[in-house]
């Protein structure tokens, strides 16, 4: 029986060899695939189990991980959740991450390549890994002012520092409380997430950077820029300004706001047309300039591109297919209607470029990242996106925008002792059954710009159909500008 | 491989089992060290009752060692430390899962398992103390068969049997759940060993030959068919693929070991595969296991509430997370796997100890099994060979079925990993298996006062009436089978009888009679 016993021993060897092979397969060769399986909660637990770094605004942590006595060890807490939600995003067991929580995850979690020295130290000293802190460019006073001024209205506010592109304020309403989503009670967090998803107002979307609406008359800045850059127009060029304008090739008549005529003579200077926001003048002007020039100018201001601020914005559009535009579409685009769509950040970028002497700076919201020892590991350098308009054009546009606030459609943005440049907008949207969105964009001080803003209030806000950009949006912009200048 | 006796003095002193002491210290270090690290890692302090529990485990090992020294001094010195290591690591992992139990269902119970370990060790070493010679078991060959059949039938008795997760392999006695199949495994091994050692030659030679396969006579097959039917009944009535596979594998392996007919293996595996396929078709519970085995990552099976692949996939996630070196004791999330403390303790260990740890675990099992098989090679009686071979192979098969199920070599079954998984029946039964293996290895390695065959032929020529191959027929290397001296041997008869005080002559007789019928391959195979 010894021969057979030995053969049994051989069979046993083969069986155990198979076990070693299959175990090696799972733990070595298939490990990556298994670790990355979306159903594997371990990556999530590893992530949530670390001391994630804070998000800092003005020296204060607005988001931090607080040690708690549960299986996750740390609870993510948002000190002023709703105020900063469109920036911070959320960090949730059930719905994942968004905003800066997602874009800066490598640093917040302490897993970024730049942090390898720290990680080696942690391994050597045996201390637990700690995330880095992310410092934002946000001016807390401007942010609060924008939040307060917007009140209960739906809308968004963006403020930029024109010379750098730093985002000083970014508010969107309605919004959400990231604390609800960060709850470790997954049923609760899931319900909160479902409620937000089902909310008609899309509170999870940042209206400041990711919801596109027609920019209305604020886009006349782009049209004016295109006209000035073409070399065929100056601020004093006289252009047609009929009381109604029949779109070329159609029977559609477009009038001015409230049906008024712009000028009794039926023509006016370009500067005057911008000051009173004359639609008929701009319809004709855009038609004269043509789709190509309009589109080119819009793209120079940042239309058609997404921006990583560091989370990714939507790309504003002039037109999805410029070559195929009919003349009436080009004409409509001159007043920011038709196919033109933008978010407040884009509109603020137009003002910022004009304020910055024509140079467009890439917007960003993260100043620097510091590791757990407060050493700076990464600092955002300002980045020029190129020249949107010449210095001369920028200067001329500034003068025109100042007169808009001094004596035009944007007088309610006036600040005593500070020259403010601005442009209002009242944009029809959808099937025109709802009140128009109202806009204001501008910068101040006009002679030494510190801040550029854009404000949208959806469907006229509290005033509804009675609202104009000047009445509703301009005071909000004013409040933000004051907060920045006084801060 | 006759025994150490060929190279040592006849009056050899008892071994002091120093190697065992040294290995036991290492094994206890592994188990207790793991226990301490779990506490330090999760709670920052030594576990509750750390010293008490550790001392209890050490005391168990010490008592076992002393019993071996007194009662089985020649027994293998590696088996006990290997078992203590596995048992200690298993206890640490169960405690680790108990204190971070996330699911709250069927919680891990380290204290209960510690008690079961103690009980298992006490019963096993009491058995070792009482059972001076394994051949005594041969007298109960048919009793063992009946006991085995009764045991596997118990879960089918209404009111006694419990159905858990679709399989009906538990019984409930006085609040305790028992898996009778674990004990039936031992009973069947005893029965097969006793039955086959008597009938192996008739099974191998007498009978018709069909398609080149030597088939045995029907009347010799009776008891074997009974067991085959019983193991199929386990599959059909209790719907437990693992236990059925274990019995069937044990049966086929021992049949092959005894008869050297590889056709048995082919025939046995074919029969089992046919039975398993039929069962998969007939019973959704078995069929689902096979689907889950083949497509665990499909959403259809993963999301299935009952009988899905969730547990299997979670086990894979757990092992993948462990990678090569593991997360370390208490640093992983093995409690994510349902029943990590019983069915999936291998995956749980894989997460925290890594591939290196699992390789060590697998090799430790291999060590125990190969030591058992080595005892089978060197023990002198056929019954001991078959019993040791069967028990060792059963353990190997059980380990293979469990780990193979977790690592997707075969479908998942309801068996438990010996010594590691939580479960009193499994612990108790496997400790008894170890006691039997130790007893047989003691017998195998004990220097014989009887000369080996070379000495027999040199010192005392065999009478002509005794063919030279009679000696090795029933046993290896000179000791006549079952302690009954070969006719004409010039050795003192008294000595042999001493070594088999329980062996009745009538019981041993059949082996003697068939001595001359040993097939040629046995003749060659026995002498080495």
UniProtKB/TrEMBL annotation, chain A:
Superkingdom assignment: Bacteria
Organism: Isoptericola halotolerans
Domain Penicillin-binding protein transpeptidase, chain residue ranges per copy: 155-482
The keyword Membrane is annotated on this UniProt entry: yes
Record InterPro entries: Beta-lactam/transpept (IPR050515), Beta-lactam/transpept-like (IPR012338), PBP_dimer_sf (IPR036138), PBPA_dimer (IPR054120), PCN-bd_Tpept (IPR001460)
Keyword Membrane tagged: yes
Protein name: Cell elongation-specific peptidoglycan D,D-transpeptidase
Gene3D superfamilies referenced in this protein's UniProt entry, alphabetically: DD-peptidase/beta-lactamase superfamily, Penicillin-binding protein 2a (Domain 2)
Domain Penicillin binding protein A dimerisation: 52-134
Transmembrane segments: 7-30
Keywords tagged on the record: Membrane, Transmembrane, Transmembrane helix
Family annotation (Pfam families): PBP_dimer_2, Transpeptidase
UniProtKB/TrEMBL annotation, chain B:
Listed Basic and acidic residues bias regions: 519-528
Chief location bin: membrane
Membrane topology: Multi-pass membrane protein
Comp. bias (Low complexity): 478-489
Chain positions covered by the region annotation Disordered: 447-528
Spans through the membrane: 21-44, 50-70, 77-95, 115-131, 140-157, 169-197, 218-237, 243-259, 264-283, 344-366, 386-407, 419-438
InterPro entries given in the database record: FtsW/RodA (IPR001182)
Keywords assigned by UniProt, alphabetized: Cell shape, Membrane, Transmembrane, Transmembrane helix
Localization in the cell: Membrane
Pfam families from the UniProt entry: FTSW_RODA_SPOVE
Identification of the protein by name: Cell elongation-specific peptidoglycan biosynthesis regulator RodA
């Amino acid at each position: 029986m010894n021969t057979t016993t030995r053969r049994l021993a051989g069979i046993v060897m083969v069986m155990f060899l198979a076990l070693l092979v299959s175990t090696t397969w799972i733990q070595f060769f298939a490990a990556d695939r298994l670790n990355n399986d979306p159903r594997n909660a371990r990556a999530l637990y590893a992530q949530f189990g670390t001391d994630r770094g804070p998000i800092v605004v003005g020296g204060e942590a607005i988001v931090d991980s607080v040690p708690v006595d549960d299986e996750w060890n740390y609870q993510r807490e948002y000190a002023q959740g709703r105020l900063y939600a469109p920036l911070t995003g959320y960090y949730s067991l059930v719905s994942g991450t968004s905003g800066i929580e997602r874009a800066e995850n490598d640093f917040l979690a302490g897993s970024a390549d730049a942090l390898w020295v720290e990680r080696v130290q942690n391994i050597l000293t045996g201390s637990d890994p700690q995330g880095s802190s992310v410092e934002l460019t946000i001016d807390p006073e401007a942010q609060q002012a924008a939040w307060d001024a917007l009140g209960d209205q739906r809308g968004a506010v963006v403020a930029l520092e024109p010379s750098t592109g730093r985002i000083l304020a970014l508010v969107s309403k309605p919004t959400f409380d990231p604390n609800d989503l960060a709850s470790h009670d997954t049923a609760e967090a899931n319900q909160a997430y479902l409620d937000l998803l089902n909310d008609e107002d899309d509170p999870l979307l940042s209206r400041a950077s990711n919801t596109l609406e027609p920019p209305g008359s604020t886009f006349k800045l782009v049209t004016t820029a295109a006209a000035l850059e073409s070399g065929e127009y100056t601020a004093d060029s006289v252009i047609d300004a009929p009381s109604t304008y029949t779109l070329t090739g159609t029977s559609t008549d477009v009038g001015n706001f409230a049906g008024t005529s712009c000028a009794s003579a039926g023509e006016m200077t370009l500067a005057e047309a911008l000051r009173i926001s004359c639609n008929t003048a701009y319809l004709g002007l855009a038609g004269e300039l043509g789709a190509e020039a309009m589109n080119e100018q819009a793209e120079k201001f940042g239309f058609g591109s997404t921006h990583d601020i560091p989370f990714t914005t939507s790309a504003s559009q002039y037109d999805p297919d410029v070559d195929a535009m009919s003349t009436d579409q080009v004409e409509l685009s001159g007043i920011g209607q038709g196919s033109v769509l933008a978010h407040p950040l884009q509109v603020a970028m137009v003002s910022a470029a004009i304020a910055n002497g024509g140079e467009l700076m890439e917007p960003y919201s993260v100043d620097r990242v510091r590791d757990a020892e407060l050493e700076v590991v990464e600092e955002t350098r300002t980045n020029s996106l190129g020249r949107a308009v010449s210095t001369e054009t920028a200067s001329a546009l500034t003068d025109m925008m100042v007169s808009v606030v001094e004596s035009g459609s944007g007088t309610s943005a006036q600040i005593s002792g500070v020259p403010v440049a601005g442009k209002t907008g009242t944009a029809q949207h959808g099937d025109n059954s709802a009140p128009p969105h109202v806009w204001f964009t501008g910068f101040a001080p006009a002679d030494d710009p510190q801040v550029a803003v854009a404000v949208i209030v959806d469907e006229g806000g509290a005033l509804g159909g009675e609202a104009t950009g000047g009445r509703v949006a301009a005071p909000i912009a004013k409040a933000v500008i004051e907060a920045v200048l006084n801060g | 491989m006759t025994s150490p006796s060929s190279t040592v003095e006849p009056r050899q002193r008892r071994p002091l089992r120093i190697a065992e002491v040294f290995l036991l210290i290492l094994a206890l270090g592994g188990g207790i060290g793991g226990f301490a690290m779990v506490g330090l890692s999760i709670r920052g302090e030594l576990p509750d009752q750390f010293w008490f529990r550790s001392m209890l485990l050490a005391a168990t090992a010490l008592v076992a060692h002393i019993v071996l020294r007194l009662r089985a001094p020649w027994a293998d010195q590696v088996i006990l430390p290997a078992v203590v290591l596995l048992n200690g690591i298993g206890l640490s992992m169960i405690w680790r899962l108990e204190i971070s139990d996330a699911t709250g269902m069927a919680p891990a119970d380290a204290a209960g398992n510690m008690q079961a370990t103690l009980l298992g060790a006490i019963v096993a070493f009491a058995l070792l103390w009482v059972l001076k010679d394994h051949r005594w078991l041969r007298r109960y060959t048919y009793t063992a068969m009946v006991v085995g059949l009764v045991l596997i039938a118990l879960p089918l008795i209404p009111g006694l049997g419990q159905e858990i997760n679709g399989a009906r392999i538990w019984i409930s006695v006085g609040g305790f759940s028992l898996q009778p199949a674990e004990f039936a495994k031992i009973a069947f091994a005893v029965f097969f060993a006793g039955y086959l050692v008597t009938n192996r030659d008739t099974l191998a030679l007498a009978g018709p030959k069909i398609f080149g396969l030597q088939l045995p006579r029907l009347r010799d097959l009776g008891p074997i068919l009974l067991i085959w039917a019983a193991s199929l009944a386990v599959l059909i009535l209790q719907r437990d693929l693992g236990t059925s596979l274990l019995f069937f594998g044990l049966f086929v392996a021992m049949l092959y070991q005894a008869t050297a007919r590889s056709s048995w293996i082919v025939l046995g595996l074919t029969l089992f595969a046919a039975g398993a396929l039929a069962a998969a078709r007939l019973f959704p519970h078995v069929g689902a296991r096979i689907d889950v085995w083949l497509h665990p990552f499909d959403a259809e099976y993963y999301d299935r509430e009952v009988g899905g692949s969730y547990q299997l996939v979670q086990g894979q996630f757990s092992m993948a997370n462990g990678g090569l070196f593991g997360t370390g004791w208490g640093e992983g999330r093995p409690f994510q796997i349902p029943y990590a403390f019983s069915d999936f303790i291998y995956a749980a260990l894989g997460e925290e100890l890594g591939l290196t740890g699992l390789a060590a675990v697998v090799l430790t099992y291999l060590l125990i099994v190969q030591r058992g098989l080595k005892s089978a090679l060197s023990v002198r009686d056929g019954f001991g060979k078959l019993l040791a071979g069967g028990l060792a192979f059963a353990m190997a098969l059980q380990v293979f079925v469990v780990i193979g199920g977790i690592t997707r070599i075969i479908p998942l079954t309801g068996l438990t990993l010996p010594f590691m998984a939580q479960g009193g029946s499994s612990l108790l039964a496997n400790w008894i298996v170890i006691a039997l293996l130790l007893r047989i290895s003691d017998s195998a390695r004990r220097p014989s006062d009887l000369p080996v065959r070379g000495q027999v032929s040199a010192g005392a020529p065999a009478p002509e009436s005794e063919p030279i191959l009679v000696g090795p027929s029933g046993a290896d290397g000179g000791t006549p089978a079952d302690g009954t001296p070969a006719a004409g041997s010039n050795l003192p008869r008294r000595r042999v009888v001493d070594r088999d005080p329980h062996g009745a002559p009538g019981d041993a007789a059949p082996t003697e009679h068939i001595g001359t019928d040993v097939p040629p391959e046995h003749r060659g195979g026995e002498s080495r």
